[in-house]
Each structure stands twice: as structure tokens, then as C-alpha cells.
Write a structure and sequence with these properties.
The complex is a heterodimer of chains A (257) and B (243). By secondary structure, chain A is mainly α. Chain A is built from eleven helices and no strands. Chain A is elongated and about 60 Å long. In chain B, the strands form two sheets. Chain B has a six-stranded mixed sheet, with helices on both faces. Chain B has a four-stranded antiparallel sheet with strand order 2-1-4-5, covered by helices on one side. The chains are: A mainly alpha (257), B alpha/beta (243).
Amino acid sequence: MTPKGIAVAYYTIVRKEIIRMMRIWSQTFLPSVITMSLYYIVFGSFIGSQIASINGFSYIQFIVPGLVMMAVITNSYSNVVSAFFGAKFQRNLEEIMVSPTPNWVVVLGFVSGGVFRGLVIGVLVLLTSLFFTHLAIFSFSILVAAVVLTSVLFSLAGLLNGMFAKTFDGVSIVPVFVLTPLTYLGGVFYSIHRLPPLWQTISLFNPILYMVNAFRYGFLGVSDVSIFISFSLLVGLTILLSIIILYLFKTGAGLKS
Amino acid sequence: MQDAISIKNLYKVYEGGTVALKKVSLSVAAGDFFALLGPNGAGKTTIISILAGLTNKTSGEASVFGASIDTETEKAKTYIGLVPQEFNFNIFEKVIDIVVTQAGYYGIPRSIALKDAEPILIELGLWEKRNEAARTLSGGMKRRLMIARALIHHPKLLILDEPTAGVDVELRRSMWDFLRTMNANGTTIVLTTHYLEEAEQLCRNVAIINRGEIIVNESVAGLRARSGDKKLEDIFVELIEKQ
């Protein structure tokens, strides 16, 4: 394909994805905004007012970056896994597979859809938080880099899940039993420095901790872990997953009989 | 003349050990109207899926208009328009969107695809339905939509896997006329069908496959002459029963 043809194919995949998520906006965009508003009300206002400040910030200011990141992670992941598995289940993925669109463009297209949804929801959840607290920005470039890289990473992870899922149960197992526990235990609601030493050490093996803290650093300028390690992990995992997925596309694993 | 399809020693074993193709070799000349016949599970759809990039082969070689499906995959795919056996479009999308989106996957910009789609949809009787969701179409219209989608990038080779299954006689005949015109205009057509009258009416050459092996590969006229001018259906039944 020519570069122009590749651009058209990429645009086609992304356009189709965005139209799909806009058509069902009450399922794709609204739930996270409502859920996170409830978190702001309950944990931020009601309970948060009784909790001492963390690193000099009120509790609600501390949890807002984590809640935004939680919404970005779950939506990026679930968008790609459901879109890809849906296309596979209905067999309209074959429309792309019979075409000359290169594998990397297909991957990029689906991941872009996940990133679009993740970032739109991230912005909506962030704007909602302004009804409950005020936020300062310590480093705009760090917060943007952290949220975009995290969204890309979890879109790739969702794609991998979608490739191998054979049933609708296969689509929900990872988000429910892996992603949700890791996110809740990833420092969204607390600083790991307040945990007993054993749990601090265990928390360091949770990759989501690094993503939440990188994003929080962009807002508050404080982090439980090294920002350098956070970004190294994000970039490393993104490259690793990209290589694995492109290899699987090339071999047809999870896609072809 | 260059072959539209060239297959050499194509071998396919599915997971679980089912051997679908046993070193199949087959050529289809450019411009031909070719029937690939066989009972259910004979290997027809496996051959088509391998050519279209939907199934991995175990071994062997295949090329489309000289482009290897292994080394020139994108080029080979550009030559093929595939009409699969089962409906595989998103039923919630509009007819026009299904066709135009498919063009996009071939690198054809939306503005051009919208213009290209009009004559195809008119020819196939779908123009009036272009803004309706695919789920509202009748079975025959859905079949024609799959043909329209396969033609939007102007393929040199059109592969139809049982395109008239479940279609009434009147519509089937109109589809025959459409396919004859396509072939007369230079498109190579490969057809699989269980309606052997259809193959007899439309196709110049035929291959019969059974249990993963080609048992006949010659012209329809030659096959009939060799069999005492029997109908293709009778010849087919005799050959399959012999195996």
C-alpha cells in the first residue's frame, strides 16, 4: 500500500471505532463519569474531610489523579477488548483481514480507538473533579506523557485479550479479576508510605502503582516511586506488548485457524 | 496467459489433526469463470480462506496473478474480492457505510468510494436501501451486499463461496446475469456452489474436490462430453460415490 493508502486505512479503522463508541455513548462515556462522581462525593467530600492531608494535599486532591487514571485504564482496556472481540465474534474482522491493510496499521487503529476513549473519559472525569476541588498542575508534559502512555499500554493489553478471548467470559475475566484489584491496590486511594513495610514491598510489584504515581506527580509534584522508573516501565511494557502483538498478528495466532 | 490462481501442493492440517487439503495443486486462468465443487467438508472453503488470508496453510505455495500469498501478501490481497459463505458484516451499520468502509481498508478515500459505490449498488438493486441498517435487509439483499462490498476495490479476481445459498430462483438468475457481465468485462470468477446447475450454466472450467483431493479438473464441456453428455450433477454424484 502507498503511504496515502495506509493513512486512509488507518483513518477508516479509527473513524469506524469512534462512530461505534459515539453511537452507544451512554454505555461508553457516561458510566465512568457517574462512577467517579460518586467516588468524589463519598471518598472525597464525605470521608475525605475526616482524613488528614497527604504530602500537604487534601485527601480529595490526592485521589483525583488516581481516579482519573483508573478511568483511563479501565476504559482504554475495555474499549479495545470489546471492539476487537466483537469484530471477531461477528466475523466482521474478516473485512480487515482480507484487505491489504498492514498488520501494524490494524493494531494502531484499534489502539487509537482505545486511546481516544480513554483520554476523552479522562478529561470528562477531570472536569467533573473541578466541582469538588481545585487542582494545580506541577508539570503538564509529565501528566500528558503519563496518561497517553498508560492509555496506549492498556489499549494494547485489551487487544491482546481480545485476540485470545473465545467467549464473552474471556473478555471480562482479566478486567474483573486482574485489572480491578491491581488498580484499587495501585495507590489510587492511599500513599504506600502509610502501609506496613511488607505491603509497601508487595505494592512495588504492582505496575499500576507506577502509572498512577507518574500521573499524580504531573499534578501534585509528589510521588511514592521514582518517576524515571515509572516512565521506563511504561515505555518498556508498551514496546514489549507491541512486539508480542505484531508477532501474533504475523503468525495469525488467535486470529486464523 | 498469466494464471489468476496458481496453487502448488497446498496442504492443510487443522488443530485436532483434521487434514483438510492433501497437497492440492490447481490453476485458474485469468478471465476464467471457474467452478470449485465438492461435498460439504471437502476443502473448498479452506482453499478460499487460505488465498484470502483468513486461514494459515500448513505447507505448499499459492499465488494470485503472480503475487505470492507468502511474500507479496498485500499485493495478492488487492487482487481478490471475497464473498464469503456466511454474512460477516456489522448488521447495525448502514449499507453504504459497509461498502465504503471496506474501500477504506484498501486505501480508497471515502470521497472516491462514495462515487464508486453508487453504480455497484444500483446494479445490485441496493441503492434505495443504502441508508438503511444491514439488519433490515432481506436474505437476498444481504447476499448482494456482500457482493457489492467485495467489488468496491475493483478486484481482478472475484471469489464467491456459495453466493446463492438460500436465494430464490428469480434473484439467483439475476445474480447469474450480473456475474456473467462481470466476467465478460474481464473479472476472473471462482465460484463454489451446491447448485450444480448453476456451475453448469455459468462456468467454463471446473474442479471437483473431495476429502482434500482434486479428483477432476477440466472444462465443463469436456467433462460432459467424456461422460456421454450427462448433466454435471449426475457426473458429480457418480464421482463422489466412487471415492
